[in-house]
Fold this sequence. Notes:
By secondary structure, this protein is an all-alpha fold. The protein has 20 helices and 2 strands. Helix 1 runs antiparallel to helix 10 and helix 6 runs antiparallel to helix 10.
Amino acid sequence: MEVPLSEEEIQTRTVSRFREVLPQVLAISAANLVVMDMAVTLLFSTNVIAALHKSPQDFNSTEELYNATEGLFMDDTYASWFGGLPYICQPIGSFASGFLVTWLGRKRSLMLVCIPHVISCVLISTAPSLAVLFLANVIIGITVGLTEAPINSYFGEICQPTLRSALASCAALFYQFGMFLVLMLGSIMHWRTTAAVCVAAPIITIILISQIPESPIWLIAQDRKNDAEAALCWLRGWVEPSGVSKEMEKLLCYHENVTLKSALCASKSTQLQTLGSPEVLDVIPHHRRRSKWSPRSMGLIRLLLEPETLRPMVLTLVFFTLSCMGGMTSVKPFLVEVLHRFHSPLDPKWSSSAGCSGRRGCSGHVPGGVFSLQDVPCHRARYAPLRMFLVLLRHQLRMFCVPILSTARDGGQVPRGD
């Protein structure tokens, strides 16, 4: 049974629910283009390995082999390193991502990570040697890591709680579309041409992100309250400041509570620093002496070990560990070759585009039954991946849009327990 929210829980609404939801959808969609760019550049490895990883036994001479690969022949070792390099370099960007998003903010960080995507596309499209291709993959891996903190922070800080889960889930749709796009282009274009065409994607992303507001919470943390209020007015339907006054007060209280909690942790750490003074060290055993870390560092560590921070971090680590153990990450760079060795009824490049769009391979379960590429008539087999992607796209749109539309229809009320 749905129970109406109390006066304190409902922001005074001066616009329609549709107008209130629309700017949040636009902002999330613009930010999700960064996720699509990330998927596009990550899947470059699949197109490149499919074109350059050849078996010498399939050619009559070394000259014929190098002509087929434009002098950029990859053996098994090179192909393995090339495919795994982005994932090896990703933790480097992940480590720096938190510092970057705190320093520059969410919006500018999202715009900044688009620049390495442009550079990697240019390097791949003009690569004269394998060293340049490997350099491009290093840049891609670091950029993927840099993308994590700003995109997740922005999702959580601009959306209303009733829409946050549905809108944040749309990132998967953009990611799958990016994989489908680059593999589809790779099936009809040369891999260099595909990379050159994809340069436009991050450039368009920068332009669109420049039109959305910064996170109000980050602006408040920088003591820019007027800018935070203007950003919140934009995100809640281009309303007047009076329409977001209650939410603005809650954000200010939240920031004050977090600041106070951090100060208390730092104060406790400062007190513990006295254990490092010469007078105290004389009476404390060596194995119980505290390290001389700064109070700020100790305060951050204490915040990290708080239950509300530690629990989601552990859940996230377990989820990503199990996800990577599934094998899809290691298969992606060699997806075309795997489908070729399994004797796919279609061209392996077309089959890979359909498989990545649905995360099911060449055949999979979709709404309404089982869709198999082997059941498609020969004269229509060319369009089978596109048909499969459209069916899956319809299913994903229905899954993501239903919660948003139902929330808008119910006036933003959240279902409560009986």
